[in-house]
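User: Hi! I'm working on a homework problem where we have to compare a predicted structure to a textbook description. Could you give me the structure for the chain below?
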Amino acid sequence: MKKIYLALVVMSAVFFSVPLISVLDTVQVYLVMTTGLELPLAFMLGDFSFTAFISLCGGVAFLLSTRTENPSWYLGIPLCLAFAITVVSSLVSGLLVITGLNPPIYEPGVVWILLSQTVFCLLPPCAALFFWSQKWLGRWVPVLAGTALVITLCSVATLYFEFSPYLVSAGLIMPGPPHVENDGFLLLYLMFGLPSIGILFLALAAVCWYVSGRTTPGNFPCPEAQP
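Assistant: Happy to help. Predicted structure tokens:
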């Protein structure tokens, strides 16, 4: 069997970006204070674009390795597209400069920012589709996909608060209470929601690694491909 579990480990990278940023920042501060040493790698690994690129490579490798054995492989395409948009998000945002303090929602820079934020919040449902495509897991498929969908509730709340200023200005919704902030949902999503999905990918990788020793080399571990 191909070592597809390594691709799953790589795919989990973007989901651990925020905890990784926190750890690397702590290490960076400690090294600067004690030795004066700075690590440029800390800023690279703490960038969503960089970790999304790592995850994109893993996702493409996984789909290419399993597309002939897994009939539902195409359900992983939305997740790879979300990785790809996250990769180019910072670059495109730098090219589409926003002018003015209150730019209209149709300005290209604003449209791209809202699109990239939407895609970033759609990582959980895209991951749910990916987990649902792994039919060889049997009864564990609904567990993985269902967990990702539960985290989607948090991402939807985060997305709502991101869009609410534009919806209020357009008169589509009423202004909410002034004390209600997006920070709580955003922190919950970044610090607990996304890492939880990353853990699911690592768990799936562990299962693939275990199953790899029980199948014929070159076979994908799904019922259709069992020897």
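For your comparison, note the following. The two ends are 11 Å apart (CA to CA). The longest helix spans residues 140-169. Good luck with the assignment!
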